[in-house]
Amino acid sequence: MERKNQSMPIFYMMGLPNHPELQPLFFTIFLVIYIAALLGNILISTIITSDSRLHTPMYFFLINLSTLDIFCTTAAIPKFLQVIQSKDKTISFYGCIAQMCLFSAFLGTELLLLTVMAYDRYVAICHPLHYTTMMSRRTCFSLAALVWIVGFVHSMIQTSLIPRLKFCQYNIIHHFFCEIPAVLKVACSDTYVNNVAIIIGDVLLGMVCFILTVISYTYIISTILKIRSAEKKKKAFSTCGSHLTVVTLFYGGVIYTYVRPGFSNILEADKVVSAFYVIISPLMNPVIYSLRNKEVINALKKLLERKLCL
Question: What membrane topology does the UniProt entry give (predicted)?
Answer without folding.
Answer: Multi-pass membrane protein
